[in-house]
Amino acid sequence: MTNVEKISSDFIRIIINEDLKTNKYNGRVYTRFPPEPNGYLHIGHAKSICLNFGIAEEYNGKCNLRFDDTNPIKEGEEYVKSIIDDVRWLGFDWEDRLFFASDYFSKMYSYAVDLIKAGKAYVDDQNAYEISYNRGTVNKPGKNSPYRDRSVEENLELFESMKNDEFKDGEKVLRAKIDNSHPNMNMRDPVIYRILHAIHHRTKDKWCIYPMYDWAHGIEDSIEKITHSICTLEFENHRPLYDWFLKELNIYRPQQIEFARLNLTYTVMSKRMLLELVNNDIVNGWDDPRLPTIKGMKRRGFSPSSIRDFCRRIGIAKVNSNIPIEFLEYCVREDLNKTAPRFMGILNPLKITIENYSNDLIEYMDVINNPEDPNSGIRKVPFSKSIYIEQDDFMENPIKKFYRLSPGGEVRLVNAYFLKCNDVIKEDDIVKELICTIDHDTKGGNSPDGRKVKSTIHWVSLKNAINADVRLYSRLFTIENPSGKKGQDYKEFLNPNSLKILKNCKIEPAVSKLKKFDRFQFLRKGYFCIDPDTTDKNLVINQTVELRDRWLKIKKKGEPS
RNA sequence: GGCCCCGUAGUGUAGCGGUUAGCAUAAGAGACUCUGGAUCUCUUGGCGCCAGUUCGAAUCUGGCCGGGGCUGCCA
Question: What CATH class has A3-259?
Fold first, then answer.
């Protein structure tokens, strides 16, 4: 533990450092990531995953992957699989430590029996409404249940009957006997077992009673000898209960620590809302690239390392915060800039005919795959008489500070020639084609006479271009905090233009060799990846994020505001 | 009217009684550039408020103000 001092310290690591110093857990650091398999993982879970697995790694400890599957009504195998997949994709390894709360159901049952024997739990016949009503409110103490003083024997018998399928759902519950006037609502005789005749995805019909979170979670942590049980802020008020159970049971007690969950601007992070977007076909499934789900982000083109970097940079604290989504975008660009090969693709094509170029000639230009990565090598890109450039890269009447192509103006075609525009062909006042010439002496991109050109644009040879659908994504919502407007449904703020599909984009041939999910940069346009919808006949490309665009700012400044 | 947690540049964080209050991002200016990308340089900008303790407070104490959470047989 010599390098402990060097680890940057958020408040959790400070606690761990202190525990190490006082030898609280004999030098062990043991965490867990405990998802409930009732939904797909999102970037908020990634924060927790990076925290728990990251801490284990830094302190030479271990981190378990444990499914908190105590509610068969909402949970299922589909979610288990996707979660396992996602945690692995993010780059973490739980080795042989994949656990399920349901593995501990027998143990939890016998602990409940112990609690009854100790006179600390009882079977309550009140229905859900009565229990809730008698619990009181935050400023009104609750009333004891008329069944609270049953004998230990009767409780034992009834609890066993509950387990043995002798009652209907909701007919009885097991409650801890604590204090119905406790200022902390969680301590007012919380329910610890309920009757649920549901098929559990792992234990099938073995049980008809299921433990509640508060009862289950501490026991799971205790069984696994977790040292630091890290959870989100809303469980702060549950900590006294967590501690109470383990103390009454007289078993190993980990320390629960709460941190603030992640919020991102222009999106929603609640499982309920994500589920609703998916089920109502507002988005196209859990892996829709507009979603902040791990599957969506993977499909959008985010790399695992960019997500990990993001989680590291945002830090850990107890204040609720709302991270600008631009920060996430910064992190992908940062990663992809160094790792993504560059290709040329024309999203909105404008045809150019080069008058002074041979009709049938095709030249192959040497192009560096990634100028940021010296090991990335070079490739050959075909050039010919007819090429496409981006519509945006031409202005018939250029505004000031527009350095790209305009009539009479000259630009560089990246890695090819200087190009000059001589004539504009229009139909109905719309620019259809440009007639241009190249300077043959500038092959490769430099002029022997030292002549400079203010702009360099990208291009694709018409003859060699392959077509693709390019899907452009922007924020799913139109306001920063769609779920935070009181009295208004978050769906009112959906962005109708969050998905834009461009057909017949013109792409350089090398892109056809890429595999699904491969990430790359379209030169000057942004980062993209191959969508899994791609077939032999149809190339589908997703935009991850645009490049930083200074031109946008310059243009805006030029406009009267 | 109860209980718990939290307030450091626009945003996210570091600081643990003595610092020119650090870092990142955003914003602004400039340099460089075969991506208006990347890179580099500079600038602007912060301790919620009021007392107290102390030679000395962002840091300790108290009060106030502000924000969040808690009244499922969800997790």
Answer: alpha beta
